[in-house]
Amino acid sequence: MKNRLLISLLIALSLTTQAEDGWQQWFKDGLGDAQIVSGSATYKVENGTLIGTTTDGSPNSFLMKGPFKDFEIQFEVKVDDQLNSGVQVRSHLAKEGDPAPEGSKGDKPLPAGRLFGPQCEIAVNGTAGDFYDEARRGTWWSILTKTEAVRSDEAKTAFKRGDWNLYRIIVRGDHYQSFVNGVKTADFTQPGDPEGNIGFQVHGIKKGEGPYTVCWKNVKFKTL
Q1: 11 in a domain, yes or no?
Q2: What's the pLDDT at 101?
Q3: pLDDT, tens only, 12-71
Q4: Which side of the chain, N or C, has fewer Cβ within a 10 Å radius?
């Protein structure tokens, strides 16, 4: 009886500490209030793991939650070598009749429902942890903000091919940081996106390729 009581107290203390710290556990039991936008990739949760799977010929797809302002998000991710992925932060959903996003390469409006903005890269090619301006400027934010020195050899090799990789992303004010397996992979200041959505990307593929998957687990989020 004493052992059972002790275990119950420890569980209650753990839950209380987590609540006090402000952490939320995402995708523990399902997709929750997240919605799929931009493409037709499929998303499901199995045993607490979010699994995104490509569909034939689909453009980039995102499982979107938000909007949020200042936050920290942590997760473990594993991606098929043939696929790249990313997590959008403070990103925006294009609406019918909107002009082209400010700062974009051209003057052509995005299709309604297209998510655009800063994306923390998930890839096996040395770009993991850098931020890409998805569907807008079409460039790396390390180049845009002249912080390429952060992209050291250690940063470029932090991502482990074929394995789970721990990401930590912090966005506070205009300051963005990312860490992959404990290695700093981005650190810059950039105004212009004070609030926006988080989106878990399944990259588009050509017809006849795939299917490929990207998986996230232990997704934790807290506002700052």
Answers
A1: no
A2: 96
A3: 444 444 555 999 999 999 999 999 999 999 999 999 999 999 999 999 999 999 999 999
A4: N
pTM of the model: 0.90
Per the structure, the complete domain to which residue 94 belongs is given by 23-223
**pLDDT tens by residue, 42-54:** 999 999 999 999 9
How far apart CA 188 and CA 129 sit, in angstroms, is 12
Residues in the chain: 224
CATH of the domain at 99: 2.60.120.560
Q: Is residue 1 in a domain? A: no
Domain membership of residue 185 (yes or no) is: yes
How remote is the C-alpha of 75 from its chain's centroid?
9
Tell me whether residue 2 is in a domain: no
Number of domain units in the chain: 1
* Measured distance CA(63)–CA(33) in Å, rounded: 10
CA 171 to chain centroid? 12
Q: How far is CA 50 from the centre of its chain?
A: 12
Structure tokens at 73: 């998000």
3-state DSSP percent of the chain in helix, strand and coil, to 5: 15, 40, 45
H or E segment to which residue 68 belongs? strand 61-68
What SS3 state is found at 20? helix
